[in-house]
Structure formats: structure tokens, C-alpha cells
Amino acid sequence: MLLAKEFADSEQLEQELINEALSIARHFGIRLLGPNVLGLMRPVAGFNASNYNGKVRPGNLALVSESSALCAAMLDWADSKEIGFSSVVSLGGALDVGFGEILDYLVADNATQGILLHVHHIYDARRFMSALRAAARTKPVVVIKSGRFDWMPASWCSRRAQSASATAIWPSCLTLRIWWCAPSCVTARR
Question: Rounded CA gap, 7 and 169, in Å?
């Protein structure tokens, strides 16, 4: 997990460090979350591998977000409303693990009864749509799409074309079945 926002003084050196970390992880068969993530939490199991210091209640709603700041704000709000989570995943730059892999996990997770996604960029549209369809067949899924432009740092230029082509998937997402989630769906477990 790459929690840090900045790894080096220059963008070029930062990209080299990120590429080296990704190369080492792949060599040893390790998946990499990040960079620029809040972390990973599994409150139903008492697991917290994040830099979030607030209280996260166990529950049955999964939260997956690219934005660490938005994720932290939602966790703060949820605590005040006594809403709990089965999993909280901050994807950040999603250089390795993306929405598709996380959705595949959450579909099979018995502790998760609903999924809330905050999406800004999609880097693998086919994988995302396949996983989203599978999730929407079995659980309520709410997708919040932010941003209108496909801007990203110059260091991620190689991924810009993938992200730009992924914007075409949003009309397809709108054809998925919409679930209404009763308030009891997001209550904290006591």
C-alpha cells in the first residue's frame, strides 16, 4: 500500500520510485494499492491499515473511493449518523488494484449488503463494467461520478488514453438496474 502523496522532490523521480515499487510487487506476486490512498479498512474484522484516525463502525455497507479526502469526510459523516461499514477502500491512483478487483471481492463478501462507489477515473473500463454488472445483480450499488474532465498529472500520461476512452462507459452504467436501499440497509451493527 502506497499511502504517501509525494515520494520525491521531482515528478520524474517520484514516477521512477512508483514504477520500481510496482515492479518489485509484481515480481513477488503482491498486489499494490495506491499511490495516494487513505488505506484499507475492514471494520467488521477489526482491521485498519489506513492513516484515518477517526472511529469507523462495523456495518454492512462497503465504501470504495479514489479520493482520500472524500473517503475521510464520508467516514466522519457516517460516524455522526451511526452508519457502519463492512469495508472501506481508498484506491488513490489505482496503479495496480482498481475498481474491478475490489468489486469482484465485494460481490462475494457476505458481510457486504450494499456498495457505495466514488469514481473519478476508470482505467480498465471492461473490467469495471463486468464487475459492476455482477455486483448490481446481487447487491444495491450506488455510483457517484465526480469530475467532468480527464485531467491527471503528467507523470500518468501513459494512462491518459485509457482513462479518456473509459468516459464512454457512463451511458452504459445508466442502464444498470437501480436499487433503492432502505434505511435499515446502512445501520451500524451493535
Answer: 32
Examine the pLDDT at 153 and tell me if it is beyond 60: no
Q: Where are the beta strands (DSSP E) in the chain?
A: 39-42, 47-50, 58-65, 85-90, 114-119, 141-145
Instruction: Please calculate the CA angle 48-53-58 and round it to the nearest 5 degrees.
Output: 50
> Which of 116, 69, 124 minimizes the C-alpha distance to 92?
69
Count other C-beta atoms under 10 Å from residue 169's C-beta.
Answer: 14
**CA–CA distance from 77 to each of 6, 57, 88, 177 (Å)?**
27, 12, 14, 27
Does the bond joining 58 to the residue before it have cis omega, within 30 degrees of 0?
no
Q: How far apart are CA 45 and CA 188, in angstroms?
A: 14
Q: Measure Cα distances from 166 to 56, 88, 153, 174 in Å.
A: 32, 24, 17, 14
pLDDT digits (tens, 9 = 90+) for 99-127: 999 999 999 999 999 999 998 888 888 89
Q: Which of 162, 175, 71 is nearest to 125 (CA)?
A: 162
Cβ–Cβ under 8 Å, residues 100 and 74: no
Stated pTM of the model: 0.77
Residue listed under C-alpha cell 476512452:
165
Whole-angstrom distance, CA of residue 8 vs CA of residue 26: 22
